[in-house]
Amino acid sequence: MARIIGGIGTSHTPTIGFALDAGKQDDPAWAPIFSAYAPLKAWLDEKKPDVAFLIYNDHVTSFFFDHYSTFALGIGASFEVADEGGGARSLPAIDGHPALARHIAERLVADEFDMSLFQRRPLDHGCFSPLSLLCEHKQGWPVSLIPLAVGVLQNPVPSARRCWKLGQALRRAIESYPEDLSVAIIATGGLSHQVHGRRAGFNDPQWDRQFMDLIVDDPETIAAMSQAELAMRGGWESSEVVMWLVMRGALAARPEVLSRNYYLPSMTGIATLLLDNRAGIASLKPASTLDPTTLQLPDSQPFTLDVSVANFDLNRFLQQMTKPPHRAAFLADEEAALAASGLDAGDQDLIRRRDWTGLIERGAIFFGLEKLAAVLGLPNAIVYAGMRGETLAQFQASRNAPGALYSVGSSLKSDDPAT
Ligand code: FE
């Protein structure tokens, strides 16, 4: 069974990563940052968790307002460091943990937390600024990462109570994972700060200290606070502290404080908190769920997260048929487009042969196939017929309106090459 060994609360200001990259260890203005992270790093070195579940927010780097999610769980096999405008920091990519992430996603949905899911999106300073001081990473990261991006930039943002309850559901999810894994929960987010308007530069260190007391001893009091109250006390951007409640909600009622620090060099208090989850806590009962991989429907293949992660490139190639230059290149010279696709020979061959069944069995989603069919001027029914091993005429004869053909494209050839 997977177990949560402890929790870390940390600011995620770019200051932290900058201090490391600029080699400021011996500079009096910056040295307190390094001493604050030393006990947390030592604890991680000693405990060697298999997975870090890290709660952070993106800063309009990888997520934008064309589609903004409240809770987005990273299910990918690897995560790169984002370029935030001046070039990416030279940190290695970090491995994800798709198997545990998939389990957590399934359990959270069963527990009424319907998550958005992401992969192949780089992570910005919200994640890597503190992580680069928490772990030695020159030879690669010593831990796998499951990131949870929380949408705290655009209102409405999730309430403190919602985050608190998500933490409790996260604990049920992790503790119901059958494999013996150790997991550290890392919450990030600045305490009091405001970075916009005439109030920019606002801090309240007294409230920050009170917050750090409450998050350990009385998190329900913070969970009961509205976003307005949090913003009034700590500044508008400090309402991102709701992310600490996800971590706290995943821990035991009385965790042990192993380290606590607060240093305010400029705009944001650099706060660090290390909580040991204490051994022997009673497990919570997991919500019941239906594992789609154990659902035996004949001639069916559920599109699960492991299928999605393993076949991202294939599905991306098909999804890109929505882009005129991509489909024009495909139609102009299919062999060249396939050769340039980066897909392996097997995937290329399935596309070349319009092997709809093979593509589904491989892990393509049907909605990519209907895009390819549309580009080829073929009706959806050609795909259905192909998957059933039938001619178009045979398939259409099984419909109530055999003459009705349609496509998601605007130009449709109705000829059936198989008849
Ligand atoms: Fe932030």
Task: Walk me through this protein's architecture.
With 419 residues, the protein is of the alpha/beta class. The protein is 40% helix and 13% strand. The chain is built from 18 helices and 10 strands. A hairpin with a 6-residue loop joins strand 9 and strand 10. The radius of gyration is 25 Å and the shape is elongated. Fe (iii) ion binds next to loops.
Q: In angstroms, what separates the terminal alpha carbons?
A: 55 Å
The unique ligands bound to this protein are: fe (iii) ion
- Gyration radius over CA: 25 Å
Structural class: alpha/beta
Concise summary:
With 419 residues, the protein is of the alpha/beta class. It has helices spanning 14-21, 31-47, 98-110, 125-134, 160-175, 205-217, 219-223, 227-234, 242-249, 305-310, 312-319, 324-332, 334-340, 345-352, 356-362, 366-375, 380-388, 392-397, and strands at residues 3-10, 51-56, 71-74, 78-79, 94-95, 116-118, 144-150, 182-188, 256-263, 270-276.
List keywords for this structure.
419 residues, alpha/beta, eight-stranded mixed beta sheet, 10 strands, elongated, binds fe (iii) ion
Give me the secondary-structure topology.
Elements lengths: L2 E8 L3 H8 L9 H17 L3 E6 L14 E4 L3 E2 L14 E2 L2 H13 L5 E3 L6 H10 L9 E7 L9 H16 L6 E7 L16 H13 L1 H5 L3 H8 L7 H8 L6 E8 L6 E7 L28 H6 L1 H8 L4 H9 L1 H7 L4 H8 L3 H7 L3 H10 L4 H9 L3 H6 L22
Parallel strand pairs: 1-8, 2-7, 2-8, 3-6
Antiparallel strand pairs: 1-10, 3-7, 4-5, 9-10
Helix pairs in contact: 1-4, 3-5, 5-9, 11-16, 12-13, 15-17
The site of fe (iii) ion has 6 residues, from loops.
